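I'm curious: can you give me some protein's one-letter sequence along with its backbone structure tokens because I've never seen that pairing?
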Amino acid sequence: MGERARRVWETYRGVVLMGVAGVPIGLAVGAVDALFGRTLLAITDLRGAWPFLLIPLLPVAGALSVWAYGRFGGETVRGMGLVFDVGHGREGSIPLRLVPLVMASTWLTHLCGGSAGREGVAVQIGATISHWAGRHLPFRDPGNVFLVVGMAAGFAGLFRTPLAATLFALEVLVAGRLEYRALLPALVASLSASAASGALGLEKFEVALCAPLQADAPTLARLVVAGVAFGVVGGGFAWLLARAKQALARQVVSPVVRVVVVAVPLAVVLLALWQGRYAGLGTNLISAAFSGAPSVMPWDWPLKLALTVLTLAAGFQGGEVTPLFSIGATLGVVLAGPLGMDPALVAALGYAAVFGGATNTLLAPALIGAEVFGFGYLPAFFVVCAVAYVFNMDKSIYALQGSVWGRRP
């Protein structure tokens, strides 16, 4: 065997073995995701039953979470920032204690009504477990492959959309570039994680659309207009979140004091606005958007956006993606009338495209739209998500996301 053939053989052998390693990693991450996700849903139901008892405790929950991170977390307090630094080679490891800290803190956030998500937690869980496993496996120079594998598994295990999860992990570290080296193991881990969490009782959110979609110039024009709106809102969310974090950090130096100062009025507002309509994940708003009833209000999406920005900027743990889904879906219902399109269809397009606009990703949101709402609508999702990607002002909720066009945090 010649030298070139030997190198090719070693490369493909390594890729296949990494793919095999993706199975146990995905199963482990999916199991943890199931525990996290099912507990979070139970907590959400509990808060919905007792809003006047639990939402006033939001300042206490925030102070406890921030104190725990300060006392026990060390570098883990950086959350997704630490994950991105490891992905870019600026840090070497993610402490395993991140997993229980981020899970418990996110449960506290949702128990007491903070407007936050869950995807960031799942991605951090997956990245931590997989990167730790990769450091103990006998692979020569795996680079950031196992980090990407874990991010994909974490996303897939929680949302049960393995194709979108794979593309999300491949494209999110650097906008405009795909980590193709991790493609096979990330896909294997995503499929394994989704299967594991599903077997353990974590259900997938799906909606069967039945709206007709014409392939003509007027429809394309409407899709472009919707994509511009979704991209601007997604990018605007990312911009506002970054500015709010900076402003609060300047005004209140102590993280514990900061979270309490914001949480007191935040709890009052969350209770005053329809007894917690904008608390938690926003799945109630997503359900309203696809229920067919006129239960979505024009101010749902800006209020959910503002309250989510305040919650996360204050220092509460959670994620952004599920609130972004709810913002996009409710905005879609509002836009459907002026666009002359089916409300459920535009809500679905907004569900995917606002997520893409805020994360500065293209392929993942198009695929998550197809996996949740049906592959027959993939061309529409691709068009809208592509336009949203162009018009999101190159912003991202991930401050340390790189860019092939030179954008830096």
Observations:
- The first helix runs from residue 3 to 49.
